[in-house]
């Protein structure tokens, strides 16, 4: 095949939206490759990218420490390999790699020549690979010969006849199976950078070109493809770099798999925008994570709320860990507890930033600069575009329009304390699902993204929004709505509860009843009576009290850490 046999760029947003957002300055005309080239021009020899400490346990290659020039060279050489094997603008490459330097360089190489990346979590196996490969029509797949103990390249090779579009398999590492392209062998071949430059000149990138197809989190039965272009990804990156006031002097420690919103927007793309150091971490290992903070002098990281709560309770561990470089932490994907956010700030002087978003459209963040009170930061998000007179300093406040809508009537809710669906319009919102013509529209009649999340107006001036729950997770008991997130937040304060998920289970009379699924702290036990007594001591309405308790060793989660309530409900039916 000739170099770059792709069918051409896939533009995502309609021209009128591109013109509107570009004229407003919300989309700045940059691409991921133009940002990479800018970083290389600024400081080519400065450290840019650091591999996990335990990389050799993951894959068959040594840990790397690359400068910006080194990242650029690796990406360019890999782009030449892809072109040599006939991949080009508009082709889709499935990628299944742990968080490593190679993973970063693969993404940057693809975007340099217009190849669309569809990243898969390393936990995905044959079922998910075939399902997503068919949905996105993978032209090629790139992985490692070995990830941990799994021979992933051989697994994918055996699936080729089940993914009709798949014509190529690339693999890093040793023992690459016959029929796959060894990237180690390819790297030893001569390569001419002029060939890549020539291709780029003939296939210029547009900021509206699709660069990724990520996948909804798996809390639903069938994942949906979420295409993203340079424009909306880099708008998100501007906001996520701004929240911690990120600069080129920062050292970012990334423990989130770079497969969806948290991994891409939280650290990877902000790193590309500001030109600091990105330290990769995978899989999550607490001793390694804390060691990386100390040894790499990490200044900023992101972590799920459960981890931050657990760490705060381990004063013995924190006492022997050097956290002196760490100044702020981002968190989200679940409601933050007031005790956790307050504890990190008061005991360690570290501000926790509260993020809310989704693959379809990141929306809001609460940072220590606009909201210095940690209790407010844990509970609330800014009500962008409100009429309270409160001004927010972030770009997101300028370009985000919000609605709170009654799910039954579709009417806008303006009064505090009334839950409704959050709807968002923003340059950070995606253009629509892959094969969206076959799916219900995710947008309302005014063009706002229907998030499926319930919020209510809060704060003395109505300047905040408070998360209530996912609309589909609401439990309706005898006609009364119960928000599991509220109960989960309250139960997380029980001394014997390490983790908790609240779900409904069927009842012939009331429709649903409430079940608390609890993971106890080590060395403790918990009973339904204790759970109910704890909630009664907090004076909640009696109809919200759990009538069933399930004790588990762990909660079922998808590859990016979200609790699979669908599975829990299925088990309780």
Can you describe what's shown?
32% of the residues lie in helices and 22% in strands. α4 (68-84) crosses α5 (101-113) and α10 packs across α11 (261-274). It has three domains: 31-237, ANL, N-terminal domain (Rossmann fold), CATH 3.40.50.12780; 303-470, ANL, N-terminal domain (Rossmann fold), CATH 3.40.50.12780; 474-572, ANL, C-terminal domain (GMP Synthetase, Chain A, domain 3). A hairpin with a 3-residue loop joins β23 (497-507) and β24. By secondary structure, the protein is of the alpha/beta class. An eight-stranded mixed sheet has the order 2-1-11-10-12-13-14-15, with helices on both faces. A five-stranded parallel sheet has the order 4-3-5-6-7.
What is the CATH fold-level name of the largest domain?
A: Rossmann fold
Overall 3D geometry? globular
Please name the CATH architecture of the largest domain.
3-Layer(aba) Sandwich
Order of strands, widest sheet: 2-1-11-10-12-13-14-15
- Which stretches are poorly predicted, pLDDT < 50 over at least 5 residues? none
How widely separated are the two ends? 53 Å
């Amino acid at each position: 095949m000739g170099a770059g046999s792709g069918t051409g760029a896939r533009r995502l947003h309609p021209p009128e939206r591109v013109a509107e957002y570009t004229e407003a300055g919300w989309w700045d005309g940059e691409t991921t490759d133009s940002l990479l080239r800018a970083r290389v021009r600024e400081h080519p020899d400065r450290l840019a990218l650091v591999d996990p400490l335990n990389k050799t346990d993951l894959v068959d290659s040594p840990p790397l420490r690359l400068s910006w020039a080194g990242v650029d060279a690796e990406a360019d050489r890999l782009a030449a390999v892809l072109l040599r094997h006939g991949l080009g603008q508009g082709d889709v490459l499935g990628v299944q790699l742990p968080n490593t330097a190679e993973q970063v360089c693969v993404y940057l190489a693809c975007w340099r020549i217009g190849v669309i990346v569809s990243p898969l979590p390393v936990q995905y196996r044959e079922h998910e690979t075939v399902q997503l490969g068919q949905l996105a029509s993978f032209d090629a797949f790139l992985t490692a010969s070995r990830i941990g103990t799994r021979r992933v390249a051989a697994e994918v090779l055996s699936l080729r006849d089940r993914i009709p579009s798949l014509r190529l398999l690339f693999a890093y590492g040793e023992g690459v199976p016959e029929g796959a392209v060894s990237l180690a062998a390819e790297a030893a071949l001569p390569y001419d950078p002029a060939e890549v430059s020539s291709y780029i000149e003939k296939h210029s990138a547009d900021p509206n070109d699709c660069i990724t197809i990520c996948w909804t989190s798996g809390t639903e039965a069938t994942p949906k493809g979420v295409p993203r272009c340079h424009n909306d990804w880099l708008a998100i990156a501007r906001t996520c770099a701004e929240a911690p006031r990120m600069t080129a002097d920062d050292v970012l420690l990334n423990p989130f798999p770079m497969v969806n919103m948290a991994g891409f927007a939280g650290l990877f793309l902000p790193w590309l925008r500001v030109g600091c150091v990105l330290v990769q971490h995978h899989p999550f290992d607490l001793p390694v994570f804390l060691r990386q903070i100390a040894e790499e002098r990490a200044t900023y990281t992101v972590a799920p709320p459960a981890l931050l709560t657990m760490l705060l309770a381990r004063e013995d561990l924190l006492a022997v860990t050097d956290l002196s470089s760490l100044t702020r932490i981002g968190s989200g994907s679940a409601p933050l507890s007031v005790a956790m956010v307050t504890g990190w700030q008061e005991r360690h002087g570290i501000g926790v930033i509260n993020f809310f978003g989704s693959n379809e459209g990141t929306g809001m963040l609460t940072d220590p600069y606009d909201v210095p009170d940690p209790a407010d930061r844990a509970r609330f998000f800014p009500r962008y575009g409100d009429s309270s007179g409160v001004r927010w300093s972030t770009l997101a406040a300028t370009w985000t329009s919000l609605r709170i809508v009654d799910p039954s009537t579709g009417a806008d809710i303006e009064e505090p304390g009334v839950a409704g669906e959050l709807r968002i319009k923003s340059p950070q919102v995606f253009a629509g699902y892959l094969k969206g013509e076959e799916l219900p529209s995710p947008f309302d009649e005014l063009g706002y993204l229907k998030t499926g999340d319930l919020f209510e107006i809060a704060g003395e001036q109505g300047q905040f929004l408070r998360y209530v729950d996912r609309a589909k997770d609401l439990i309706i008991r005898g006609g009364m709505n119960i928000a599991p997130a509220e109960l989960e937040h309250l139960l997380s304060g029980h001394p014997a509860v390490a983790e908790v998920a609240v779900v409904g289970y069927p009842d012939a009379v009331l429709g649903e009843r409430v079940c608390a699924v609890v993971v106890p702290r080590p060395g403790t036990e918990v009973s339904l009576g204790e759970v109910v007594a704890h909630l009664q001591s907090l004076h909640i309405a009696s109809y919200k009290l759990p009538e069933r308790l399930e004790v588990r060793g762990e909660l079922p989660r998808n590859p990016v850490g979200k609790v699979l309530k669908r599975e829990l409900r299925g088990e309780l039916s």
